[in-house]
Design a protein that fits this description.
29 helices; DNA Primase, Chain A; 35% helix
Length: 838
């Protein structure tokens, strides 16, 4: 890595802030600090000495003299000409600047265009395209591909001599300073390659209060001369292609183009920020008209367009005419005969009669395709319930019978293999959203009228109606004994003992709970080094003891692995190693729980008020819940009540709902946090409990925020999140390889446990007894009386049964064997002794 270190030092002398990166282009260490302060020589040497170092990156922004980079990502270019056309446009617009720009090639076949400019911003996306059908099959949740973007304040770029990176035009020593005007010209050119626009809707500015036979907006969109309109307002036509008309904005501009009208899509879009239009937004012709002619007032635009002959005011068909048409159609009269009869009966022209028939048929056809019906004769709206049920089924709603032998079901919504429970409230929101996007142009009723009917229909969202939905069969993505899955935005991480692998959604083709998809673009780290803030946190709460760290990592892996092995039904307790209960708390247990919730769907329950035998104790647990955390349980918590949940399954009881039983293999795992200890006396408890003790490194006087200078999770950048996820993958793989790596409970935790069960006075007495002649046989009654006397207690204060049980539990916890006998030579009295076993 000596060549990278030498290059890094040269970059620093040239005024750039640099960091070392790994093979996945991620910073070796947390890098945000170096956005404000350049790295020291010692830190630089340490960073580039890491075995993970594979490249060098330059931090953009003010720290590097206002460096900004335009990143042209050619791997997503479907034309194969993106960079060449982009550079030619820059040469045409800025001939004196184009040859002075610094250009570097990237490992993926892209280009970095580099310069300095005082007008700096953060990272910007300048040109995008939608994912192709093939790409969506592979990654259905990644619907956008970025073609051109910038790296500015808060960003960095990989630089030469990293493998695959080299300067192709000039070197970074020759970095030019450009003006804000030149920068804007480059940005305008970049935006001209944008293929993905967000349509500008006029609904938020103007809501039609009445319907039209034909909307003036729709009519203008279909036949309005938007090109002529733009020219009338000073926009110059630069050129016309088969699909587009290219414009230059009014006024002075060094750019050759400023916007275009796409005739196929019917959108006008601008690349410049120097116009009344917003860049990278799609404007329909009616929106262009409203902006240019009416200052964005769509109500005024509708009036003007109607006056110009666009659209038709609504001409309702008379009730008598509708009745006549309906009656004759029911009798099987043909449209030709009906047109003649209508003309004679109502003394209207033959053409008007034909238009009335067409209008009636259009109304009927439109009504037949939806779950509501408009009675044009009585002018009434109504809901057709059977259509409503069919509509919900078409939209992915159905009944999910979790237990095939049970009549109990859940209403679910399946959206492209993304599943979620659907309450009546969620279905209401879905219907509302659907109608908000529905086109009511030309209808005799408004959105408001239909919503009013829906709001008043109590039966529409009742469970009795939902019972008519069809049952669905679902092929879930499930963890297996040897494999664990984590869905991310860009694919599904598959973890086995041997490797991590990113697999596409199309390849898996399984149903996933929507709540399980982690909202992050994951990059898998194939190295064996998973340093991150959270791994450092784990080290500190484990006292930087390697055995304890491995135990903690394997426990995390167990919790994250959703498969429940029938032979290993465990509950995990996060406790504290401190002996003094009064000094507990603030050790970081909540942060570890937060880490688990970032990876899986979890339900957090307040342990202070939790009663397992209380009705609705688990009412917030859903079918997608993978983990239940009972947080901060009280002293003397009865763990035995959880045995059936840990080993058998869980019954979910909700108010006014049928109870639902989730069997063991699909039920959530259980975790408990406490400042106290849990009675693990007996083999049943020991088998079920796995305890992770938190050291006292963090405490109320020194929090993780004090240690790291910010809140964990809340203040992380994408790079730190990626490190965190990869560390958690490592924990899962460790568990798959070795299971839970057991560790003896710490002495302080054991002492706290004995104190909690049998009192502090008993612990002090046992310390004295076990260290002074405990291997000799002693009369049990004598030791019992000795204990009472040394603590000024009566038998009523401390029973002999409790004392005997305390001896056995303490012996088990501190590596003694408690031996008992009846001594015939001593009047058959009961005697005991403790033998050290280790």
């Amino acid at each position: 890595m000596s060549n990278l270190l030498a290059a890094a030092k040269k970059y620093i002398t040239l005024g750039f802030s640099v960091i070392a990166t790994d093979a996945n282009k991620r910073s070796i260490f947390k890098w945000t600090h170096y956005q404000k302060e350049k790295i020291t020589q010692d830190a630089l040497a340490t960073m580039f000495a890491s075995h993970k170092t594979a490249g060098i990156a330059i931090i953009c922004g003010a720290i590097s003299g206002n460096l900004e980079v335009v990143d042209v990502d050619c791997k997503y270019d479907l034309s194969g000409r993106l960079f060449e056309e982009f550079m030619q446009a820059i040469v045409d617009a800025l001939p004196d600047l184009a040859h002075r720009l610094v250009i570097a090639t990237t490992k993926s076949g892209g280009y970095h265009i580099m310069y300095r400019c005082s007008a700096l911003q953060g990272n910007l996306k300048l040109a995008r395209r939608g994912a192709t059908d093939e790409e969506l099959i592979q990654e259905p949740h990644d619907k956008v591909r970025v073609l051109i973007e910038t790296r500015g304040e808060g960003g960095y770029v990989i630089a030469a001599p990293t493998d695959g990176y080299a300067y192709s035009q000039n070197t970074i020593r020759d970095l030019p300073e450009i003006t804000s005007e030149q920068r804007e010209t480059i940005f305008e050119i970049a935006r001209s390659f944008n293929q993905l626009m967000e349509p500008v809707s006029h609904q938020h500015k103007f809501v039609e209060q009445k319907t039209y036979s034909k909307s003036p907006f729709r009519d203008y969109n279909e036949r309005g001369d938007v090109v002529g309109l733009l020219q009338a307002h000073g926009w110059q036509v630069v050129r016309t292609t088969e699909r587009q008309t290219i414009f230059k904005r009014p006024g002075n501009s060094t750019s050759k183009t400023s916007g275009d009208y796409d005739h196929d899509k019917g959108f006008f879009a601008v690349f410049t920020t120097s116009s009344i239009f917003e860049p990278m937004k799609g404007y329909r012709p009616c929106a262009v008209y409203a902006m240019l002619e009416c200052n964005g007032d769509y109500k005024e635009a509708a009036k003007k367009l109607l006056a110009m002959g666009y659209g038709e005011p609504y001409k309702p068909v008379a009730k008598a005419v509708k009745k006549f048409i309906k009656k004759n159609k029911q009798l099987g009269i043909t449209n030709e005969d009906l047109q003649v009869g209508l003309s004679k009966t109502f003394n209207i022209s033959f053409q008007d009669a034909g238009e009335d028939i067409l209008a009636y048929e259009a109304e009927e056809q439109a009504a037949a395709g939806e779950f509501w019906h408009w009675n044009s004769i009585d002018e009434k709206l109504s809901i057709i319930y059977i259509r409503f049920v069919k509509f919900l089924q078409q939209q992915g709603f159905g009944l999910y019978f979790y237990d095939k032998s049970s009549p109990i079901f859940k209403i679910i919504h399946n959206d492209a293999n993304r599943l979620e429970e659907a309450t009546s409230e969620k279905i209401k929101k879905f219907i509302q959203h659907y109608l908000e996007g529905y086109d009511f142009d030309g209808l005799e009723y408004t959105q408001e009228q239909l919503l009013e009917i829906i709001y008043k229909s109590e039966k529409l969202f009742g469970e009795k109606l939902f019972e008519f939905l069809q049952p669905v069969t679902l092929d879930f993505l499930r963890d297996t004994k040897d494999t664990c899955y984590f869905p991310f935005r860009n694919g599904i991480v598959e973890i086995t003992q041997g490797e991590f692998k990113l697999r596409s959604y199309g390849e898996m083709n399984k149903v996933i709970w929507k709540s399980d998809i982690i909202n992050h673009h994951i990059d898998i780290d194939l190295s064996d080094d998973f340093e991150c803030e959270f791994s450092d946190f784990i080290g500190k709460v484990c006292g930087n003891d390697q055995d304890r760290i491995l135990n903690a990592c394997s426990i995390l892996g167990y919790m994250l692995h959703k498969y429940k092995h029938p032979a290993f039904p465990h509950a995990v307790v996060f406790g504290e190693e401190t002996e003094d209960e009064s000094k507990g708390g603030g050790t970081g247990k909540g942060i570890l729980v937060r880490a688990l919730t970032e990876m899986m769907s979890a339900e957090i329950i307040d342990g202070k008020n939790f009663k397992i035998d209380k009705s609705f104790a688990f009412q917030r647990v859903g079918l997608d819940t993978k983990l239940i955390v009972i947080q901060d349980i009280e002293k003397n918590f009865d763990f035995k009540k959880f045995y059936s949940i840990i080993t058998e399954g869980i019954t979910i009881e909700k108010k006014n709902k049928d109870e639902l039983y989730i069997p063991y293999e699909d039920s959530p795992k259980l975790s408990i946090t406490t400042n106290y200890t849990i009675n693990d006396e007996g083999n049943h408890a020991k088998r079920r409990l796995k305890i992770m003790e938190f050291s006292g490194y963090f405490h109320p006087g020194h929090s993780p925020q004090d240690e790291y200078g910010h809140l964990l999770f809340n203040d992380w950048d994408s790079d730190e999140w990626n490190r965190f996820y990869n560390f958690m993958f490592y924990c899962v793989r460790l568990y798959l390889m070795k299971g839970i790596i057991d560790l003896d409970q710490g002495g302080k935790y054991r002492r706290k446990k004995i104190k909690g069960q049998f009192g502090e006075e008993f612990m002090e007495w046992f310390d004295d007894y076990s260290s002074n002649g405990c291997a000799n046989w002693n009369e049990f009654s004598a030791k019992y009386n000795d204990f009472l006397g040394s603590n000024d207690l009566d038998k009523k204060d401390y029973s002999i049964k409790r004392f005997k049980k305390g001896l056995q539990v303490a012996a088990d916890n501190f590596s003694f064997k408690l031996e008992q006998r009846r001594n015939r030579q001593n009047n058959n009295r009961y005697e005991l002794r403790l033998i050290k076993t280790t």
